[in-house]
Amino acid sequence: MKRRAFITLLGGAATAWPFAARAQQAGMPVVGVLLPTSPDPNVDLLRAFRQGLKEAGYVEGENVAIEYRSAEGHNDQLPALAADLVRRPVTVIASPLGTLSALAAKVATTTIPIVFGVGDDPVTLGLVASLARPGGNLTGINYFNYELVAKRLEFLRELMPAAARVAVLVNPANAAGAETTLRDVHAAGRAMGLQIQVLNASTSREIEAAFETFVRERPDALFVGGDPFFNSRRVQLVHLATLHKLAATYSQRQYAEAGGLMSYGTNVADASRQVGNYTGRILKGAKPAELPVVQASKFELVINASTARMLGLTVPDKLLVAADEVIE
Known about the structure:
Helix 3 (43-55) crosses helix 12 (268-283), helix 4 crosses helix 5 (99-108) and helix 8 (204-217) packs parallel to helix 10 (234-243). This protein has 14 helices and 13 strands.
């Protein structure tokens, strides 16, 4: 989707700042949305976020204003963007996608409520004291992006029982996510007798370089780590995997919808909706310290049967039955 179309979808995001200023003068609450990557690939998630707000009684432009801030894939910019939202100031900061943006918001303020969506354990990350009683000014959704690594590798092995070498692509700029992914994938790989090869990429050019390595070394399959930057580059990743006829598994259904072979993970659109709902509840007066962290319960296995045929793979009946969706 082109940026102009995205701006139209948001209802004039390009004028969000002056609108938010007018809203504050009129007493309308302002929500700051902090994103690690460009909003363009996250249109569905932001639509779901606004749906959650609506369920709580808030509609953008009618009784709430939203200011969007994106690091455009440059994680080092997140602290400054979070600080800018605090200076505005906004009523609530929402970080529906990614650990790094949630951590940046936490550092920026101890008083403004923050609602996060993260793939790792928020207690381990230091975002909350406990899942049941978060304490402090943060709460949100844990969508288990990293905890599902072993299951995703298991599904890949079921699809490709003869696979012996699996390449794993992680983003070193997201140190916490990369560390968790590698810990779990190495443990699961050992249990399955798989040889794991690790490659790093935190830019578009590095993704291309990683695929050049895949072409030379020809692993049996590719495991793409769950990461907001990779999500924003999913078309590039799927295109390169298709171009080089490399079987790959991903963390979100959007990859399979774009032509990727298989995905398994949380329904992140539903998680984003829940972030929006919590944001609305806080606008109504709920305290984040007393709102328990929601643990995502919707997990999806999506298989692109057309891509499987192109790769010469036969999808076992067991996987077809287990799949939430088979794309033909």
